[in-house]
Specification:
Elements: H1 2-12, H2 16-38, H3 60-87, H4 92-114, H5 122-152, H6 158-177, H7 180-204
Helix pairs in contact: 2-3, 2-7, 3-4, 4-5, 5-6, 6-7
């Protein structure tokens, strides 16, 4: 067990975390765009993103697989961020809460792809909706926690914190309105946040 822990910690000190973060963004976005390109009747004003993963979507497999892989690949990124903050010994309780919420949110985001929104399967649709809401609320919480932690960190910068606070606002607006175009904005906002952090970590070799 100690040997396994040693090699796991050694792996976290490599750049595997931010690399997986970029792959999470690229694969998730690619799945969205492929499904969107194949869905000729998709309407941004009326259709939620989940429509791309339903039985009426020709590219549903790409959309759902993209979500599943994206959620799984986000794990190493958050573990990498946690390692950096742990080494700085910044707000241990808040840091631990942030990583727990982030990983739980990733799990439920992955389940969103496992259980797509199906018109003729109410169980799948209900589970899809529940998992999506939990993942979204989790996203608000961990983005808030990390934004606060980044303000206290010397490894991260204020831009990443302020960007996180802006994303929280977009998430909140969506949860109160459920407007499709806001959901797209929310999606691209969190993608941008993860991409910027991943590139930053690679550039700084943190």
């Amino acid at each position: 067990m100690e040997d396994l822990k040693f090699y796991f910690n050694k792996l976290l000190k490599t750049q595997i975390g931010p690399i997986c973060g970029l792959l999470s963004v690229i694969i998730g976005l690619t799945g969205d765009l492929i499904a969107l390109s194949l869905f000729s009747g998709f309407n941004f004003d009326d259709n939620m993103i989940s429509w791309l993963g339903g039985e009426w979507s020709p590219g549903a497999i790409f959309f759902n697989l993209g979500i599943i892989l994206s959620g799984i690949l986000a794990f190493p990124l958050f573990l990498h961020i946690n390692r950096i903050l742990k080494e700085e010994n910044i707000s241990p309780k808040l840091r631990k809460a942030a990583i727990v919420v982030a990983l739980i949110s990733c799990i439920f985001f992955t389940l969103v792809g496992v259980f797509p929104s199906l018109m003729y399967n109410s169980l799948y649709s209900d589970l899809h909706g529940i998992f999506f809401v939990i993942s979204t609320i989790g996203g608000i919480i961990y983005t808030l926690f990390y934004s606060v932690l980044f303000l206290k960190s010397t490894s991260f910068n204020r831009f990443q914190s302020y960007l996180g606070f802006g994303i929280i606002l977009i998430f909140a607006i969506f949860l109160f309105t459920w407007i499709p175009i806001i959901e797209w904005l929310m999606t691209f906002a969190i993608i941008t946040w993860m991409m910027i952090i991943s590139i930053y970590l690679l550039h700084k070799r943190l």
